[in-house]
Amino acid sequence: MHQPPQVAVEQKVVGVGSCGLDYLAQVASFPKPDDKLRTENLQTQGGGNCANALTAASRLGLRPLLVTKIGDDAVGDGILKELENDGVNTDFVLRAKGSPSPFTYIIVDREGGTRTCIHTPAAPLAADDLSASRIGEALSGAALVYFDGRLAEAALQVAKAARSAGIPILVEAERLRPGLNELLAHADYVVTSTRFPKAWTGEESLGDALLSTFQRLPHVRWMVTTLGAQGSVFLEHVDALQEKDSIPTAKLDDVLKHLSATVRDHTENSTDDSPACSAASGAEIRVGHSAATEGPMFLQWTRDESTLSEVRQRADAAAAAAAVSNADSASASQYNRTGSTAKGADQLPVAKVIVASAARIAKEAIVDTTGAGDAFIGTMLYAICNGMPPEESLRLAAVVAATKCTAVGARTGLPHRDALCAHIL
Question: Which end of the chain is less packed: N or C, by CB atoms within 10 Å?
Answer without folding.
Answer: N
